[in-house]
Amino acid sequence: MSRIGKNPIEIPSGVEVKVGSEAIEVKGPKGMLATPVHPKIEVTVEGGKVLVLRRDETRAAREQHGLRRTLMANAIHGVTKGFEKSLEVVGVGYKVQVQGKKVVLTVGYSHPVEFPMPEGINAKAEGNKLTIAGMSKEMVGEVAAQIRRVRPPEPFKGKGIKYVDEQIRRKAGKSGGKK
After folding, report:
1. Does this model's pTM top 0.85?
2. Are residues 32 and 66 in the same domain?
3. What is the CATH number of the domain that holds 41?
4. How many CB atoms lie within 10 A of CB 130?
Protein backbone atom coordinates (compact mmCIF):
# COMPACT_ATOMS: atom_id res chain seq x y z
CA MET A 1 0.00 0.00 0.00
CA SER A 2 1.26 3.45 -0.85
CA ARG A 3 2.21 5.26 2.33
CA ILE A 4 1.47 8.59 0.69
CA GLY A 5 -1.72 7.49 -1.08
CA LYS A 6 -3.48 6.08 1.98
CA ASN A 7 -3.30 9.36 3.96
CA PRO A 8 -6.55 11.35 3.83
CA ILE A 9 -6.38 15.02 2.78
CA GLU A 10 -7.99 17.55 5.15
CA ILE A 11 -10.27 20.06 3.41
CA PRO A 12 -9.81 23.52 5.01
CA SER A 13 -12.80 25.80 5.56
CA GLY A 14 -13.74 27.81 2.47
CA VAL A 15 -12.60 25.06 0.07
CA GLU A 16 -15.07 23.10 -2.06
CA VAL A 17 -14.08 19.80 -3.74
CA LYS A 18 -16.31 18.48 -6.54
CA VAL A 19 -15.56 15.03 -8.02
CA GLY A 20 -16.55 14.71 -11.68
CA SER A 21 -16.12 11.98 -14.28
CA GLU A 22 -13.27 13.75 -16.14
CA ALA A 23 -11.70 15.96 -13.47
CA ILE A 24 -11.81 16.92 -9.81
CA GLU A 25 -12.49 20.63 -9.29
CA VAL A 26 -11.16 22.40 -6.22
CA LYS A 27 -12.51 25.90 -5.49
CA GLY A 28 -11.04 28.11 -2.80
CA PRO A 29 -10.34 31.72 -1.85
CA LYS A 30 -7.58 32.13 -4.50
CA GLY A 31 -9.52 30.56 -7.38
CA MET A 32 -10.26 27.21 -8.99
CA LEU A 33 -7.97 24.33 -10.04
CA ALA A 34 -8.84 21.06 -11.77
CA THR A 35 -7.00 17.74 -11.42
CA PRO A 36 -7.59 14.99 -14.01
CA VAL A 37 -9.16 11.69 -12.93
CA HIS A 38 -7.39 8.38 -13.60
CA PRO A 39 -9.60 5.34 -14.34
CA LYS A 40 -7.71 3.11 -11.86
CA ILE A 41 -8.11 5.57 -8.96
CA GLU A 42 -11.28 6.43 -7.04
CA VAL A 43 -11.61 9.75 -5.20
CA THR A 44 -14.28 10.28 -2.55
CA VAL A 45 -15.12 13.21 -0.25
CA GLU A 46 -16.25 12.17 3.23
CA GLY A 47 -16.71 14.39 6.27
CA GLY A 48 -14.26 17.16 5.43
CA LYS A 49 -11.60 14.79 4.04
CA VAL A 50 -10.64 13.56 0.59
CA LEU A 51 -9.82 9.86 0.30
CA VAL A 52 -7.85 8.47 -2.67
CA LEU A 53 -8.35 4.73 -3.18
CA ARG A 54 -7.25 2.16 -5.78
CA ARG A 55 -9.89 0.30 -7.80
CA ASP A 56 -7.61 -2.77 -8.13
CA GLU A 57 -4.07 -3.91 -7.28
CA THR A 58 -2.52 -3.69 -10.75
CA ARG A 59 0.85 -2.06 -11.28
CA ALA A 60 -0.74 0.98 -12.99
CA ALA A 61 -3.08 1.52 -10.03
CA ARG A 62 -0.20 1.29 -7.55
CA GLU A 63 1.85 3.76 -9.64
CA GLN A 64 -0.98 6.29 -9.78
CA HIS A 65 -2.14 6.04 -6.15
CA GLY A 66 0.45 8.27 -4.46
CA LEU A 67 0.69 10.57 -7.50
CA ARG A 68 -3.04 11.35 -7.62
CA ARG A 69 -3.15 11.94 -3.85
CA THR A 70 -0.24 14.37 -4.10
CA LEU A 71 -1.84 16.20 -7.04
CA MET A 72 -5.06 16.59 -5.00
CA ALA A 73 -3.13 17.83 -1.95
CA ASN A 74 -1.25 20.35 -4.13
CA ALA A 75 -4.52 21.61 -5.65
CA ILE A 76 -6.06 22.13 -2.19
CA HIS A 77 -2.89 23.86 -0.92
CA GLY A 78 -2.76 26.01 -4.07
CA VAL A 79 -6.30 27.40 -3.77
CA THR A 80 -5.80 28.22 -0.07
CA LYS A 81 -2.19 29.43 0.34
CA GLY A 82 -0.61 29.23 -3.13
CA PHE A 83 2.97 28.38 -4.06
CA GLU A 84 6.05 30.51 -4.61
CA LYS A 85 9.59 30.01 -5.84
CA SER A 86 12.45 32.48 -5.44
CA LEU A 87 15.26 33.11 -7.92
CA GLU A 88 18.42 35.13 -7.40
CA VAL A 89 20.29 37.05 -10.12
CA VAL A 90 24.06 36.97 -9.40
CA GLY A 91 26.63 38.94 -11.39
CA VAL A 92 28.12 42.41 -11.86
CA GLY A 93 25.60 44.57 -13.72
CA TYR A 94 22.93 41.84 -13.67
CA LYS A 95 19.49 43.02 -12.60
CA VAL A 96 15.83 42.04 -12.69
CA GLN A 97 12.73 44.25 -12.99
CA VAL A 98 9.00 43.58 -13.16
CA GLN A 99 7.12 45.80 -15.62
CA GLY A 100 3.40 45.03 -15.54
CA LYS A 101 2.91 41.39 -16.59
CA LYS A 102 6.49 40.82 -17.78
CA VAL A 103 9.89 40.31 -16.21
CA VAL A 104 12.84 42.21 -17.72
CA LEU A 105 16.23 40.57 -17.17
CA THR A 106 19.54 42.32 -17.78
CA VAL A 107 21.98 39.41 -17.59
CA GLY A 108 25.00 40.17 -19.74
CA TYR A 109 23.48 39.96 -23.21
CA SER A 110 23.57 42.89 -25.65
CA HIS A 111 19.85 43.43 -25.01
CA PRO A 112 17.52 43.05 -22.02
CA VAL A 113 15.49 39.81 -22.09
CA GLU A 114 11.73 40.24 -21.64
CA PHE A 115 9.84 37.27 -20.20
CA PRO A 116 6.00 37.50 -20.29
CA MET A 117 4.18 36.05 -17.27
CA PRO A 118 1.44 33.51 -18.04
CA GLU A 119 -2.10 33.96 -16.72
CA GLY A 120 -2.36 33.21 -13.00
CA ILE A 121 1.35 33.72 -12.25
CA ASN A 122 2.66 36.83 -10.47
CA ALA A 123 6.23 38.08 -10.16
CA LYS A 124 7.80 40.40 -7.61
CA ALA A 125 11.36 41.77 -7.73
CA GLU A 126 13.30 43.01 -4.70
CA GLY A 127 16.85 43.99 -5.55
CA ASN A 128 18.47 40.99 -7.21
CA LYS A 129 15.78 38.54 -5.97
CA LEU A 130 12.75 37.51 -8.05
CA THR A 131 9.76 35.72 -6.49
CA ILE A 132 7.33 33.79 -8.70
CA ALA A 133 3.92 33.05 -7.09
CA GLY A 134 0.70 31.38 -8.16
CA MET A 135 -1.94 28.71 -7.41
CA SER A 136 -0.57 25.87 -9.53
CA LYS A 137 2.65 24.29 -8.24
CA GLU A 138 3.36 22.94 -11.72
CA MET A 139 3.05 26.36 -13.40
CA VAL A 140 5.14 28.15 -10.74
CA GLY A 141 7.93 25.60 -11.08
CA GLU A 142 7.85 25.65 -14.89
CA VAL A 143 7.97 29.48 -15.13
CA ALA A 144 10.84 29.61 -12.61
CA ALA A 145 12.74 26.97 -14.62
CA GLN A 146 12.19 28.88 -17.89
CA ILE A 147 13.47 32.12 -16.34
CA ARG A 148 16.51 30.26 -14.94
CA ARG A 149 17.23 28.90 -18.46
CA VAL A 150 17.76 32.48 -19.74
CA ARG A 151 21.19 32.51 -18.02
CA PRO A 152 21.89 29.38 -15.91
CA PRO A 153 24.57 29.74 -13.22
CA GLU A 154 28.08 28.97 -14.40
CA PRO A 155 30.54 27.02 -12.21
CA PHE A 156 33.62 29.28 -12.46
CA LYS A 157 32.37 32.65 -11.15
CA GLY A 158 28.85 31.62 -10.07
CA LYS A 159 27.21 34.24 -12.31
CA GLY A 160 23.70 33.69 -13.62
CA ILE A 161 20.16 33.06 -12.43
CA LYS A 162 19.82 30.48 -9.66
CA TYR A 163 17.24 29.33 -7.15
CA VAL A 164 17.73 30.95 -3.72
CA ASP A 165 18.32 27.60 -1.99
CA GLU A 166 20.49 26.18 -4.81
CA GLN A 167 24.15 25.38 -4.17
CA ILE A 168 26.44 26.02 -7.16
CA ARG A 169 29.36 23.60 -7.42
CA ARG A 170 32.37 25.77 -8.09
CA LYS A 171 35.33 24.74 -10.26
CA ALA A 172 38.91 25.96 -10.17
CA GLY A 173 40.06 28.02 -13.14
CA LYS A 174 43.15 27.46 -15.25
CA SER A 175 46.18 26.33 -13.28
CA GLY A 176 48.63 28.49 -15.29
CA GLY A 177 51.67 26.25 -14.84
CA LYS A 178 54.89 26.53 -16.98
CA LYS A 179 55.84 23.91 -19.54
Report:
1. yes
2. yes
3. 3.90.930.12
4. 25
